Amino acid sequence: MSSSTVSAQLLARRMRQMAYVNACCALGITSSVYFNRGGGESQSEGESEHVVEEKTAWCACRLKAASRGVDAVRAMSKEDAAWLNAELASDHAGETGAVYIYRGARSALALRARSSHDAGDDAAAAFCKEHEKTEAHHLKAIERLADGDARTSLIPLWKVAGYMLGFAPTAVFGANGMYATVNHVERFVVDHYESQIARLQDYSLQRSNDDVRALVDVLRECQADEAHHRDDAASRVIVADSSSRSLVDAWGVVVHQGSRAAAEVARHV
User: Coil, helix or strand for 28?
Assistant: First the structure.
């Protein structure tokens, strides 16, 4: 197939997708079609940049509907409004911390590379870069949904905590420490999102509210990404012997309890 034919096909596909995006935004509706990893048509080389642009516009449409879903839940009762504000505040804290976990890990990897006079762990650095980008996307989405009482006021604390959680185990144990940490953090986060999704799904079914369903869709997409991070990290953890396994498991308990405590604090402050 000639390059001109491929280019024409890419252009035609992009025009179809953008027409779909524009229609969605005009109507204020959402869809289950994904133009990124996890769904949609496969991407050929050279398409990914265009797909990201389309997904960004499409996500803006979905977030607008999800924001209306937030308002719809708040309007149900004072109890529902207080619950959702607290949960969004915990998400705001969590996604902020997640971005800084990867920044801390990248700093530790760079420090280890300089001190050992080697090129560093390219795979670990690429892991950080890829997943930090996704977490930054999540943070922007949550910031769009969370306003006023739905935002935590302890952002500086969550930045420092996230940075140190990424930096310390990576500085001491290298990439393996980072992978173990991410695995345990994401296990908590997946369950955390699931509890929110379950309650919101009940709302959407009871009220047949498309906007609340859009809010559920956004949280499900975040959850799916976190599950991917968890599985990716778990597949890279190296456990040499039983003592290493005990250390990893013990660290997992610390991370889980710390994450749970941080989420609870963020719900109230």
Answer: coil
